[in-house]
Amino acid sequence: MVSGNQASRELARLARCGRLMRVARGLYVTVTASRFGPVPPPVDKMIQSLADITGHAIVRHGAAAANALGLTTQVPVRQIYLTDGRARTLNLGKQVIEIRRVPKWMLVLGDSLAGDIVRVLEWLGPDFAEHVVSKLAVHIGQDHWNTVLETRTHLPPWMVEAIQNGVLTSALVPIRR
Hints:
The protein has 177 residues and is of the alpha+beta class. The chain is 44% helix and 20% strand. It contains 7 helices and 8 strands, in the order H-E-E-E-E-H-E-H-E-E-E-H-H-H-H. The strands form 3 sheets. The chain has a 4-stranded mixed sheet. Helix 3 crosses helix 4, helix 4 (113-124) crosses helix 6 and helix 5 runs parallel beside helix 7. The longest helix has 13 residues, at 4-16. The model is unreliable at 172-177 (pLDDT under 50).
């Protein structure tokens, strides 16, 4: 039987010898050896594993989703993820990953295109939301907009209004699938 102190000491020893990397208190990841030194696993894989272990949703931030959807060319300097669990900061060497706790309505659609739309609109705010919806409506199928609107009771009123107005104003433009 291994006690908590013994397990902690063993994890610390494995981290010192380079077989593990400590990313946060009590969280370690295995590293792969390369000619440049130890390499941690890909961030997306690590975040997915953390979500599986904790049982909480963890999704990318609205700024990263906006970049992925082609709404901005700016790439966020810090990697930020959103969760309904505990906020924490992970350190992968010099790379910092921030996990922020957010309201459940921002995560109601999970890690999907419809969920990314919600987080992009929240990140941009009410002033730019309708314009962005009009811009996205020509690239995103009606099914995704319907999915977002099906959750309208969870979303802020300004967002529902922006989606409805933005999709209607672009209704004359054919939607590509």
